[in-house]
Amino acid sequence: MEKICEELDEVKVEIEKLREECQAKTELCGSLRKGQDDLAAKLQEARLEIERQAEEMCVKSKEIFEVRQLYEGIKSKLQEKESFLQNLNSAHQKMRVDYCEKIVELEGENKKLVLALDEAMAKIHDLEKKTCASDKEINVLKESLSVRKVKSVEAPLNLQASRELKEANEIIHKLEEDNRISQEQLKWKNEQFTHLEDAHRRLRDDFRASEAEWGKEKSELLEEISSLQTSLASHIRISKDLETQLRMCNQALAHEESRRKVLEVEVSDLRSQCDGILLEHQETKAQLENLTLKRDDEIGELRNLLRTKEILFKEMKCRTSLLEQENLDLHASVKELQHTELSDAAARSSTKKLQTRLKSLEKLHNECSLQYKQKEAKFSSDIEKLTGDMKECVSELNVKKLQIENLEKDLEDCHSSMYVQNEYISILLLVLKSEFHYAATGKHLSSTGMAESELHSTEKDKKVILLKEQLESMETAHFAVSDDLKEKSEETMVLKAEVQRLKEKMEESSKYKLWFNGQMQQTEISLQEKERACEALEKATFDLAKRTSELRESELEAEKWKSAAEFLKKDLENNKLASEKESKRLLGILKEQDSKASDMQQKISELESMAKSRADAVEKLKKGNDQLKQDLANSELKSENAKSDALLAFEKEKQKLLLILEVRDKQIHNLTEQAKGLKKNLAVAETVITQKDELINETLQKAESSKTTEIESKNKVIAELEAKVSSLLQVLESQEKSLLNLKEKDEELEAMLEGSKMELEGLKSQFGLERMKLELKNEELESEKSDLVNQIMNQSHNLEAFLLQMDGMYTRIGESLEDVELQEKLQKMLKRCEDEDGVETDDRSAGDNHTNRAVKSTFLPTQKWHGQRSDERIPLKERNY
């Protein structure tokens, strides 16, 4: 019995050690779980901070990108303006070349006219010289005639005189022919001079018409220059505003770069913190690995202990065999007692021994009960810890559920923000449409009062009509109006204030430009309205760029949500794996506890068998005592009392052990049920998480599809608006270029006109002087002509008188010279004269009938020559066009 009690004590000690080890391991697991939870919380906080900072960085990078886009747009505009200026310079050079060519042509025409005038003047001088020579010859002939008259009077009967007279007649005929030729030349020159005067008048009329056209063109160019100056002033103001905006953007860029550097430093700090956290995580992993190694070592030690316990069990079996032998010895002793009646002293000594053994057994039972109470307290504490762990797991699941709900709320907020942005864009489009409509109506009202400006603004009106049609088509696509009308009304008020400010500026500029005409003011107003429309379009493009950037931000946010969902999926998978590992570990612990409980039950069954064997031995002893009742009544009573006490104590201990075993069974059953409940909860959580993951994926897919469709539609709208805006900007830039070209052309034309005016004034002065000279020369020529006519008339009278005298002379000579020889000689002389002269004589005038008769009577062959020359054309008819 003492050996059995010692073995029970050893078993109890081992069980207590195992329980302590289990408690230590459970405490280590709890501490490790808490450490893992703390690390997970820290990692989540670090991730949230990193995501927040990444979002800030994304927003700032987007702002920087927008500012860079604005800067690039301004650069492109400046480059376009430079190209525009280059085009203007090229157009200016072309205009200069064209005007130079025109001036060269005009100078060539003027040179031709001057050459024609010089030729006419040279011909007139030649004619004057010829007339002077003919006058001199006529004077010489008159003198010779006077001398010959004297001689003829003195010697009428001289043949020499007759010859001289014949020669004189021939000379007179020659002079008459020369005079006739000179008169024909004078007529031809007069006609040529009249033609030149007509050409000069035509040139003068053309010059006056060109001057009138140039005046009109100059007025138109001045009007265009004034309009271009106004547009240039407005563009200069816009460029100054853009320069200020550029400076602000550069400052904002510098500020954002400084902030970006600070954020980079913070990100580096966070990275270092994350690295530290990862190192801590790795350290905890190493600790867990060490603990697993320790656990494996402990499992090996437990296996060794089991082996030692098996050895002890075998020893216990040997001891039981020895105890059985002792029982047999006791039976033999009892039989010996039965056979040999011993004395009362020997019986008393045996009963005392039994009493001492029973007392020792009672002490052992009391110690076992105390140990069992301590173990029950430890089991209760372990159960409380397990319940606490279960509560922590449930709280973690609740936290994850809250996180999933927050993510769903964030998704709903994103959808609502996208809806609000869509409505905002639609309202902006409506505002732009109203502004375009107002600008178009203003243009229409201004164009009704302007006849000349319609020619310049027809293309713009067509483009505005196209824009109207496109805006109406955009209205059909974006007719959704939301509750943000108050904000849009505020924006419209701001736009109205800006419009009023611009109007005030235009009024101030109009005060300084009162000298312009009403039509120029109307054109300025129309240009200003077009500029306002362009500014509104630029604002709209800027707003659209903002909206596109916001859409890109929303896309990035959606991608972030996707990454967060994937990260959560990964976390859930990791949690699943960890929970599976923990469930496997708990199952292993439960299996170990089951194995330990089965070992304990085997030990208890062995103890019960030993107790049964001992009860059998006691019953055998009872039977021996019954047989010895008569002899040993007192001893039997004492032994019965001792047996009853021992049985009661043994039954009590047995009941206590059974209760303890039932409690353990209940605890094990509860633990198994809790493990099953944990498994079920984990399965339910996994199903819920999978469902939520599917819902999140579906919502994300729907959001992505809706966002993609919205983004595509908005991108299309933005592309159309950008195309429209680009076309309008191109139109405006082309107009600006044309205005600058016109300004430069106007300046060049003004310079050219001033130069041409100076040249024309010089030419006019030269033409006036030449005209005066020509008029004086014409007057001189007319006076000379009148003198020549008078001289010719006088000469004709003189010739008539001379011919009369000659007739008288011929009559006298005919009367005096009746000889045939003289007549033959005279006829021979006349034939010689005819042969010598040939084709040189012609009738002088129709009124010289008397002279003709005389010539007919005297010179008959001359009529043949006259008939021959009458068929020929006059030189003027050949040269006159």
UniProtKB/TrEMBL annotation:
Residue ranges of the region described as Disordered: 833-881
Identification of the protein by name: Uncharacterized protein
Keyword annotations: Coiled coil
PANTHER family: OS03G0691500 PROTEIN (PTHR45287), PROTEIN, PUTATIVE-RELATED (PTHR45287:SF3)
Residue ranges, compositional bias (Basic and acidic residues): 841-851, 868-881
Coiled coil feature spans: 1-56, 103-130, 158-192, 253-308, 358-410, 485-798
Keyword Coiled coil set for record: yes
InterPro entries given in the database record: At4g38062-like (IPR040262)
Sequence ranges of Polar residues compositional bias: 852-861
Species assigned in the record: Cuscuta australis
Keyword Coiled coil belongs to the record: yes
